[in-house]
Design a protein that fits this description.
Bound molecules: zinc ion
Order of helices and strands: HHEEEEEEEEHEEEEEEEEEEEE
CATH class of the largest domain: Mainly Beta
Helix content: under 10%
Structural class: mainly beta
Strand content: 35-45%
Distance between the termini: 31 Å
CATH topology of the largest domain: Mutm (Fpg) Protein, Chain: A, domain 2
Number of domains: 2
CATH architecture of the largest domain: Sandwich
Number of strands: 20
Shape: elongated
């Protein structure tokens, strides 16, 4: 039976890479809307306000720099100090006096250098506006399209895309096996080979996302592969024992990237480790079963994180 890792449900063709990326990351978009709904209800009817949303579709983290207001200021939700890879943040800005609007900007520094200024304007009279001013270094790394809505309480969205590399995507057919605790690809009829016997089983698993085609960064480790014999995500740079016998086989696999040294969120789960014996990514709090015998071994592993939905 032929097992095609490439037919795993994500189109790599298409003339609108940014639109396709947004589709692959649709949960990120809905998280942004949830964030905005949380503070939009509290706005005064007489004020001018903006919900500012920044979507980071890159593997870089961004550090908050300065901010500046000609009118108004932050409201209800404040911007965080950091935007992590593949994360969306939102904050509110509003006017703070009679017959004034809100007009300001906020800076974020891209990992490795490069500053982006995000500007926004909801005047008391006139049209809403926004701008993006990357310095030359940031401009060489990222593209930042933006949109803004009309009205006194409006919404501006900035989306950050990586200009370098192939363009990050993600697959949502990954599951944890309750028998071996490994992350495996559940999109095929063939459920791989489980170290605990039989095929992997996704019973009670969250739906995990695996990132691929991303650039490596301080928070994203590349070189992860899916094994066509056991269907497990494993670190491909070092050989590891495969439950189907011999070492893993990563032929035809995408290059996957796994987040590490990042912060957990309600949809980003900490607790994943690479096994020092079999190189599989596994959920450490539950131990599991290793293809090299006994339990998996967390020795020298980073603390990895996976995005999921229920
Ligand atoms: Zn298993
Ligand atoms: Zn394998
Ligand atoms: Zn193991």
């Amino acid at each position: 039976m032929a097992i095609s890792i490439l037919s795993a449900g994500v189109s790599t063709a298409g003339s609108e890479p940014q639109a396709n990326t947004a589709r692959d990351f649709v949960k990120l978009v809905s998280e942004g809307i949830d964030l905005i709904n949380k503070f939009s209800d509290n706005l005064s009817q007489n004020a001018r306000s903006l919900a500012v949303e920044i979507q980071n579709y890159t593997s870089y983290s961004l550090e908050k720099g300065g901010d500046h207001f000609d009118h108004g200021g932050f409201t209800a939700a404040f911007p965080p100090q950091q935007i992590e890879p593949f994360q969306v943040i939102a904050f509110g800005v509003s006017s703070n006096g009679l017959a004034t609007g809100v007009n300001g900007s906020i800076d974020f520094v891209v990992e490795g250098g490069g500053l982006i200024r995000f500007g926004f304007d909801n005047p008391f009279v006139g049209t809403n506006g926004r701008y993006v001013r990357p310095d030359p270094l940031a401009d060489s790394k990222v593209a930042v399209p933006s949109v803004i809505s009309v009205g006194n309480d409006a919404h501006v969205r900035f989306s950050i895309y990586d200009k370098l590399g192939k363009g990050a995507r993600r697959q949502e057919q990954w599951r944890s096996c309750h028998k071996c605790q490994q992350l495996f690809y559940d999109g095929h009829e063939f459920k791989g080979v489980c170290p605990a016997g039989g095929g992997h089983e996704s019973t009670a698993s969250f739906k995990y996302f695996a990132i691929f085609n991303a650039n490596g960064s301080s928070r994203l480790q590349n070189d992860w592969r899916s094994c066509r014999k056991c269907q497990t995500l494993h670190y491909g740079a070092i050989p590891g024992a495969c439950a189907a016998g011999g070492p893993h086989n990563s032929e035809q696999s995408f290059e996957y990237g796994v987040l590490f040294n990042a912060h957990p969120t309600p949809s980003r789960q900490l607790g994943w480790c690479s096994c020092n014996k079999c190189r599989a990514l596994f959920y450490a709090p539950h131990g599991g079963r290793c293809a090299a015998g006994g339990q998996h071994d967390t020795y020298a592993s980073f603390q990895y994180l996976l995005d999921f939905k229920v």
